[in-house]
Amino acid sequence: MKRFMLILILIYASMNAAESFILPDNTSDALYFLKRTIDSVDKEVTIITPHLKSQRLRNSLEKSSAKGIHVTIITQQEPMGDAAYLAQFKHIDVNIIQGQQSNHQKGRLAISLLLIDKKYACISTSAFDELLMRHDIALIECTDDTQRLRHYTDIIETQLKRSKSYLQ
Predict the structure, then answer these.
(1) What is the DSSP letter of 136?
(2) For residue 108, what is the DSSP state?
(3) CA-CA distances (angstroms) from residue 94 to 138, 146, 166?
(4) pLDDT tens for residues 98-114?
């Protein structure tokens, strides 16, 4: 029954998406699509993810920064790997979410969100981490729906308020 419900949820979510990928089956396609989406940016890229570990995405973000495009990365823990590496570049801001405390444990970030020029977004139940994307059973859903874009922009603004700059 749980499997049936999961399949129904995935089918419903993908019906309302411009593009969707079920992981781990479509990981290579999803990574290529995310990279191509970042490469098409005109003004700004914002990423929320528990951790960013993807050579392809890192290279695209680095190239975007070199073109003067503003990149904001919001991550949960002290960045290691790609987020820390990218913090050194001009036009890239890395922010650390200050987690909510409950029972002496920090809450964990459980989604990843990519927003391109406030015109296109991809949301995922997996981190933008190539290894996890190859093993997690997850969904990446991309859309240009204005109502969803407003909602995703609100999520980003809320998380920016809860975060502090990595370089401070």
Answers:
(1) -
(2) -
(3) 25, 26, 6
(4) 765 545 556 678 889 99
